[in-house]
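[Q] Does anyone have a clean structure-token version of this?
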Amino acid sequence: MLENRVGKLIAIEIKAGATVRQGGLRGLNKFKSLAGDRFVAGIVRCTARQTTWLGRQIWAVPIEALWS
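[A] Here you go.
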């Protein structure tokens, strides 16, 4: 989790696979629900080839994007 000075939150989860299914987002969705208005984004780092929008405020982002 990342939190800025005004309390806004970004949750980051790491998955080993390239495919992220809605069922695999239970943890992020639960955190989003608990964080309420403080939640800015959820990011799933995975072995996918491109960034993919997974739903409201949640994206799958290739792990390789960390060093490219």
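[Q] Thanks! Anything notable?
[A] The chain has a mean pLDDT of 92.
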